[in-house]
Input
Amino acid sequence: MEFGIRAWAACAAQLDTQQAWLAWSRAPWLPAGEELPALGPMAPMLRRRVTALGRAALHPAYACQPGVEGMPVIFASRHGDTLRPLQMLGNLADGEALSPTAFGLSVHNAIGALYSIDRGDPANLQALAAGRDTVEAAVVEACGLLADGAPEVLLVQYEAPLPAPYAVFADEPECLFGWAWRVAGPRAGETVFSLEASDAVPATPREPLLPHGLDVLRFVLAGDAELHHAGERAGWRWRRHG
Output
């Protein structure tokens, strides 16, 4: 699978410009906090329903797709919004009625749906979760859409730390972040990226600095030649060409 990245944007605490992200990619550190920019492009009635995770996802999505309609969109997150379902479970345990609005906003495609509703764009929208292979699964899906004739695909990847009751399941460093790429087919004179899977799973670093989704962004921005990742059922190799 080969593809190009026509545009990119990212969002995390203390990283609010592309220049800051490029500098971060050369000396990365784990972002902390939830101080994210406001969602200015979104209508206020929808914006009030968006959590910090939604802001992390939607801020780069709007930045990468201004005024463009009809582009397929893939929202990819390992865990999605785990806080809302946890709060609803607490309500059930207390014998309280569940809010239909809270339930509707807790499903995995809710953030993407708010984005689609706000833009009035009925284009193909998908929400993916594939464990440690989530970013790779999203790229595979994007390349499939390109092969089916889509000129470009918007890919949005986002994560947040798990709530305390679920922290035991965390298997990588955690932080609140989101990034978006406008993915397209390879074009002469531009950097081309490739992704391939194999049955050989590389050894996982003992203490990775970043969550994998953020490390993939670092790889793209820093100009590294390769990135290897141990997925749940396959090994993955990202490569830069040109």
In short: The longest helix spans residues 134-147. Helices lie at 18-26, 44-47, 52-64, 83-93, 100-106, 110-119, 134-147, 212-222. The longest strand covers residues 2-12.
